[in-house]
Amino acid sequence: MAISKAFSIEDGNLAGRTLVTARDMKYSDIDLTFTPKPSGDLYKKTDAADVKQSVKNLLLTNYTEKPFRMKFGGNLSDFLFELDTDFDIDLLGEQIIQAVDTYEPRAQVTRVDANLYSDRNEVVVTVEFQILSTSELVVLNLTLTRLR
Amino acid sequence: MATSTVRSSDLDFSNIKARLKDYLQNQPEFSSYDFEASGLSNVLDVLAYNTHLNGLTANFSLNEAFLTSAQLRSSIVSHAQMLGYQVRSRTAASAIINLSVNLAGVVGRPAKLELPAGTTFVTSIDGVSYTFRTRESVYASDDGSGLYEFKNSTASNNIKIYEGVQKTKTFIVGEKTERQVYIIPDETIDTSTADVNVYETVSSSNFTAYTPLAFAIQVDANSTHFSIHESPNGYYELNFGDGISFGKSPEPGEKIIVSYLSCAGAVANNGTLFSATNDITVNGIDYAINVTTSAESSGGAPKQSIESIRQLAPIAFASQQRLVTSLDYKGLIESNFPQVQSASVWSGDENTPIDYGKVFVSLNFVPGTSATVQQAVKDAIVINYTDNLSVMSMTTEFVDPVYVYVEINNNFQFDPGLTGKTLGAMETLVYNYIVSYFNTNLRDFGQVFRKSNLATEIDALDKSILSNDITLKIQMRFDVTLNVENVGVLYFPSPIASPDDIFYRVQSDAFEYAGYPAVIKNRLSSTVLEIVDLDGNVLLDNVGSYSPSNGTVSLIGFNPSQIISGNSFIKINVLPQDDSKIEPLRNYILSIDSGKSSATAKPDRQTPSLKVNI
């Protein structure tokens, strides 16, 4: 049986409106590349780009880097100091999920892939996450390389 | 719209960042500031951290700007110098010895022998050898039999020797464009041993001896004084007058020679056996110098501690190098005599009985200070300070500290299930703690005993201790001459409990009277004191009385023939009217009679009783 929705007289005008099922929150942040516009202002990151920048920033931060927040960050650089034979992709994935769960409430990780390229001394990590307010799926690719 | 202000002096990082977020909350431009991973949060971290560091720096700087809150020694020394306070350097230990040489039978022996200043002696303390030396020449004359006993410049055979190495620093005064300060890069200097001589030229043997400014009574343009101050890096600076009105300043071309003792400080205390490093040579033959120790080495001390400077510098400033108030005396004595742990000073009108025109000084010496050194310190206080700096017509009288003992009986409950210790071990633990509590927190002038504080400490001593109760008595000691009638009054620091028909309030330890072992007790329900034997028979029905309100115990006609304990005094204990605290009088020092104190444990397994006692 079909269900019809009824509104009160006071709310009657809602009948003609579109029901929004997802929150439409506008996020805005400064662009960490600090690229200036021709006007001299900095560019901004908004919505999905904002969250994507945050997740990237979070995952590339190592423990003790943030003042008075010793355990903030993905601490992924730790994995670069392991033998490639001991490289644990599952542990890396858990660490990413835990960091995002703890410090980025706007996103939920749906998938983590990591590929080790021994000859280039780098790890390529792909993180797929959903922005909770819009259900939008975002893919973030990170390349972890030792500086020296 | 709410407003938010970021205080640049705020210290807490979280508060600063929260205030920055409050500000951004009111700005429509950015909304992601509250997510810790956002770029804006990183910017806020930088801003907040910078403000946090600025706040800390300002806080530390301001702390260092005041004597009461400064932490760095250099800051505290600088503040003290601004107050005109002379910070004490490391101090050389000194000992008093008697010296003699026996030349009996030596043909052609001289009438007089000399040991020059700087004659050295060695002693060993804890396996380490220390060198002591004389600082003046001493002379000995033949007593007719060939025995030479050395005497110092005051004709005393008590020769003082100081630990340390004699060092000299030479400065040639250059052309002066600015006020010259001479650096002595030696943290081990005892500045009180510094001699400063200024020679007319580099090669001249004529010199003027400069004296310490601290002892100057009057200063004019021709005064020859010097002062040595600690510099910020821990070394010392030699200063002279300005050469105009405040004392002479060495002229260009003159040579300054500073000689002083570089000493080891407190580690050279307690040396008892000394031997001369070299023999004395008479007519080409060496003879041994006989050394007898009159007072073991003492008085060695490290640099004055920063807490001591913090406490004494304002007092010294207030005294203005004059001895007027009791605090002036206290500050001057404690600053200049490391042998004195603390001093208590009161005027004659505060004394009992009143004695106008006198200042009473009681000194609590560092444990181990010999009687000879104690007397030397008292003499030095009078000669160097009170004779020169005190108000005219005031004389100084030294009074020994009076020790008041506390007899503590502690009963405590403990749960054996919460500790692995036995009942005996727990009793030992609590007893030792009570003794150490007195040694650590009391044993000095003006230290008040508070029963609740000790009870709290005992409760916290071990998690198995559940509760404790303290009963105490105050004990003073009455010096006794045997077989004569002794008369005297003991002034207890607290009122004594009023007489009772069951319990005694005053009681002594045992002595022998009329052939019987006996004690002094108050008569029940009375303040009259009696001598009773151990069976309770009254041997003498009035040997004095006690005054509950004044806290005095007066003995008259007390004539014992023997003190059972073998001491030269009897212990008299009283029950205080209020045992919650014992506040010592001016020269009283509280201590514990460990032999009459105890700790008794009672196991308490904390199981609730199901039995009702009817």
In words, what does this structure look like?
The complex is a heterodimer of chains A (148) and B (614). Chain A is α+β, with helices and mostly antiparallel strands. Chain A has 2 helices and 5 strands. Chain A has helices spanning 47-59, 89-103, and strands at 28-30, 44-46, 107-117, 122-131, 136-145. Chain A is globular. By secondary structure, chain B is α+β, with helices and mostly antiparallel strands. Chain B is built from 8 helices and 36 strands. In chain B, the strands form 7 sheets. In chain B, strands 1, 2, 3, 4, 5, 6, 7, 15 and 18 form a 9-stranded antiparallel β-sheet that branches. A 7-stranded mixed β-sheet of chain B has the order 8-14-10-11-12-13-9, with no helix packed on it. In chain B, strand 29 (528-533) and strand 30 form a beta hairpin. Chain B starts with 12 loop residues before the first helix and ends in an 11-residue tail after the last strand. Classes of the chains: A alpha+beta (148), B alpha+beta (614).
Structural class of chain A: alpha+beta
What characterizes the major β-sheet of chain A? 3 strands, antiparallel
Helix content of chain B: 10-25%
User: Taking Cα atoms only, what radius of gyration of chain B do you get, to the nearest Å?
Assistant: 33 Å
Topology:
The complex is a heterodimer of chains A (148) and B (614).
Chain A: E1 28-30, E2 44-46, H1 47-59, H2 89-103, E3 107-117, E4 122-131, E5 136-145
Antiparallel strand pairs in A: 1-2, 3-4, 4-5
Chain B: H1 13-25, H2 39-64, H3 73-82, E1 94-102, E2 112-115, E3 120-125, E4 128-134, E5 138-142, E6 147-151, E7 159-163, E8 165-172, E9 182-184, E10 189-199, E11 207-212, E12 225-230, E13 236-240, E14 255-262, E15 275-276, E16 280-282, E17 285-287, E18 290-298, H4 306-319, H5 326-336, E19 340-347, E20 358-365, H6 371-389, E21 395-398, E22 402-414, H7 423-441, E23 449-450, H8 451-459, E24 465-479, E25 486-491, E26 506-508, E27 511-513, E28 516-522, E29 528-533, E30 538-547, E31 552-558, E32 562-563, E33 569-574, E34 581-582, E35 588-592, E36 598-603
Parallel strand pairs in B: 11-12, 20-21, 22-35, 22-36
Antiparallel strand pairs in B: 1-6, 1-7, 1-18, 2-5, 3-4, 3-15, 4-7, 5-6, 8-14, 9-13, 10-11, 10-14, 12-13, 16-17, 19-20, 22-24, 23-34, 24-33, 25-31, 26-33, 27-28, 27-32, 28-29, 29-30, 30-31
